Fold this protein.
Amino acid sequence: MNGKGAGVGKQMIEFRHLRYFTAVAEELNFHRASERVYIDPTPLSRTVRDLEERLGVTLFVRNPVAWL
């Protein structure tokens, strides 16, 4: 054991990532989710994209017309 704990070599997921992801998943809309967590839509979207990059998966398919 190197004493650094879990996630060595990976970026850790922060609570805000999960909070914002949950809001978007429940609202299915970045604008409504941003109002729910009291943050502007742009940083909310950036944080969710950061979470996707940290996990190495696409969590939401972004489409300006409809959610897929």
